[in-house]
Amino acid sequence: MTAPPPALEIRNLAFRYPGGPEVLRDISLTLRRGEKVALVGPNGAGKSTLLLHLNGILRGEGSLRVEGMPLRDENLPAIRARVGLVFQDADDQLFSPTVFEDVAFGPLHMGLPEGEVRRRVREALAQVGMEGYERRLSHHLSAGEKKRIAIATVLSMSPSLLALDEPSAGLDPRARRNLIRLLQDLPLTMLVSTHDMALVAELFPRMVVMDAGRIVADDATAGLLADAAFLEAHGLEAPCLPAAPPRNR
Amino acid sequence: MHFSPFDHYLPRESVLHALEARPKVVATLLFALSVVLLPDGAWMGFLLAWGLLVAASAAGGVGMGYLLKRSLVALPFLLPALSILFTLPGRPLFRLALGPWLLTATESGAVRFLSVLLRSWLSVQAAILLTAVTPFPEVIHALHHLRFPRLIVAVIAFMYRYLFVLGDEALRLLRARQSRSARVDARRGGGTLRWRAGVAGGMAGQLFLRSYERSERVYAAMASRGYRGELLVMHPHALQRRDWLFLLLAAVGLALVQCLGRCL
Asked: Most buried in the list A62, A112, A233, B246, measured by CB within 10 Å?
């Protein structure tokens, strides 16, 4: 019996925008099923661009497989059903007038029958703790609520891989804490781009560091966070541990 | 910080609120059509149409004052119609000297202008009443299920969703400008008109660029969730007896409007 293929397998991926410089160079990355991996690096390192490749929104050179399925035109619908991509700005993700329509968008476009769509919307909202928000208007939600609903919009498609772009950006401490709990409890493979190093330390045993379009490190989080010189060289910083607060002079 | 001048829905419990959205949308469109079809100077018809509107707003628990106030928004659109006053031949009413031109207002021109004014004013009020008693997403839904061209419905839906986001963005830009519009004592601040116009133009450009970029991200978000060029929606709820009853009432009322407008 052969082992099941990895959740995500990228080999030598390169990408440039037409007429622009190379944004991704020689990216190779494998995610085992159920693994939760952080993607860190300075602004402009190519993290978001890489995430947009996972479901074929952007197509570079090189190979990319999701659960063994190569990224090709005929596989696109199947891959988009497996990869749940959550954008950084929830206002981009929530494009329908009501929460229900947004969470139902994915399942409807997967061709599921109506009863199943309704069931999935209910379940996805329950998973993110937003039961009863179906009829709410997206523009009346708080940032934390929008973020959770944005995650629900892809959970309703029952993806096996969740790709989040800066999920904790702009959230207040409580919303951030709720998000961390949510990510902790979701039994999915995850690739999460973030600047929130405390979140990385808390949630992700493995960390991939990108800089200038390349992967410069892919290792255990604890080890990388202990290497202050490495972090500084790539515009990063280890999270502050609780210590005595600085005093005003 | 929220920008929501487009939220017209007044949450109440009324007969009109309880109706399904489709009959309300159909009745509103029929109302507008019926008013537009009334001949010029069919005052009794216009009066009856207005009466129907008053009755409907009373049934919906929406005050006429609210409708009147909101309908003022449509006034600027009547400016082009002013030309009718002077271009139709007929018995002269008064003359107006405008530089080298001498404009003559005619009686038939006045009748037509007033009729145009009433038509648009009544239709706008009907639309305002519709959005006051129906949550806007349901109006969009109804348009979908009434088989309106999908592209137009999609455009309306996106406009509704992103007007708020754009409004917020514009508000932030304005606040950023305000915060830096400082003045030092004894100096005249604010720059020249030309400079300020340039700043405003730059802000409009910013807003356009941001919206353009956002549209690309929204499209990516849609494609990520399986969008392949066709927007799908769920099936509508069933119409109940009261919905049919309302439609019947509306049809009878509007038929009366036509009769009255044409025979009297």
From this structure: B246
- Token pair, residue A163, equals 């790709």
Among B17, B144, B225, B233, which would you mutate to test the A interface (most chain A Cβ atoms within 10 Å of its Cβ)?
A: B225
Give the other-Cβ count within 10 Å of A216's Cβ: 14
Residues from chain B that touch A50, judged by Cβ atoms under 8 A, are none
Model confidence, pTM: 0.79
Does the CB of A75 have a partner CB in chain B at under 8 Å? no
- A76/A61 Cα distance (integer angstroms): 16
0.85 surpassed by complex ipTM: no
The pLDDT-based confidence of A27 (bands split at 50, 70, 90) is very high
A73 vs A184: CA distance, rounded Å: 33
Q: Cβ contact (<8 Å) for A138 and B140?
A: no
Residue B228's closest chain A neighbor by CA? A109
The phi and psi torsions of A51 (rounded to 5 degrees) equal: -60, -35
The CA distances from residue B125 to A106, B62, B136, B234, in Å, are: 37, 11, 16, 30
- Measured from the Cβ of residue A114, the count of other Cβ atoms closer than 10 Å reads 12
For A17-79, strand residue ranges (E) read: 22-31, 36-40, 61-66, 69-70
The per-residue pLDDT for A47 is: 94
Q: Rounded to an integer, what is the distance from CA B49 to the centroid of its chain?
A: 18
A137 strand-pairing partners: A98
Alpha helices (runs of H) in chain B, residue ranges in sequence order: 15-18, 21-37, 43-59, 64-71, 84-87, 107-133, 136-145, 150-180, 193-224, 241-263
8 A C-beta contact, residue A216 and residue A45: no
CB A82 within 8 A of CB A73: no
Number of Cβ within a 10 Å radius of residue B191: 12
Which H helix or E strand runs over A83? strand A83-86
How many Å lie between the alpha carbon of A162 and the closest alpha carbon of chain B?
Answer: 12
Q: Give the C-alpha separation, B152 to A216, whole Å.
A: 48
Long-range contacts of B34-39 (CB under 8 A, 24+ apart): B34/B254, B34/B257, B34/B258, B35/B118, B35/B119, B35/B122, B35/B123, B35/B126, B35/B257, B36/B119, B36/B123, B37/B258, B38/B115, B38/B119, B38/B257, B38/B258, B38/B261, B38/B262, B39/B115, B39/B261, B39/B262
**Torsion, CA B61, CA B67, CA B69, CA B75, rounded to 10:** 170
Task: Provide, rounded to the nearest whole percent, the portion of chain A with pLDDT above 70.
Answer: 96
A117 contacts B251 by C-beta, under 8 angstroms: no
